[in-house]
Structures are given as C-alpha cells and as structure tokens.
Design a protein that fits this description.
Helices cover about 20% and strands about 30% of the residues. By secondary structure, the chain is an alpha+beta fold. It has one domain (about 5-80): Ubiquitin-like (UB roll) (Roll), CATH 3.10.20. The radius of gyration is 12 Å and the shape is globular. It starts with a strand and ends with a strand.
C-alpha cells in the first residue's frame, strides 16, 4: 500500500451515500475538498457550493482547509462528512 495516501470513508448526507476514497497526505484539506467535489460532480451530478466543508464524522469538528492532511487526525478508515 502507498504510504503517501490514506483511505477515508466520505459520507455525503445530501445524497445519503458513502464513498471510500484514497487521499494523499501531502495535500491541503482545501485542495482535497475541491478534488472530491469535482469527482462527485462528474460521477453523481453533485452541485458544488462555496460554503461546503469537510468534518470529522466522529467528533463533528471542521477540518481546517489550510492544513495538510498529515497534520490532522485523519488516518486510514477515518470517517468524514462533506456538508
């Protein structure tokens, strides 16, 4: 397995769907969010909004868009919500 990526479980409440996604640990949370939104837009018709954020499904805390993934509590099997 690639040590530069982690597998997260993304929950999209608007669509009541979950997705398993590999994300690079050396990218900023904001960049990851943008990439995820573009993939969802192309695959399921997700409507990109300016005010969406990534949150921990366990704690409800928002992930800071400026932090690198490796500087957060995200790890393999972390559960994240996009709202």
């Amino acid at each position: 397995m690639d040590k530069n990526k982690i597998l997260i479980e993304l929950y999209l409440p608007e669509y009541e769907r979950e997705f398993d996604i590999f994300i690079p640990i050396n990218k900023r949370i904001g960049t990851i969010k943008t990439i995820i939104e573009k993939i969802l837009e192309e695959s399921i018709g997700y409507e990109i909004k300016d005010d969406t954020n990534l949150y921990s499904k366990d704690t409800g805390l928002e992930y800071n868009a400026q932090l690198l993934v490796k500087d957060t509590d995200l790890k393999n099997a972390s559960k994240v919500i996009l709202v």
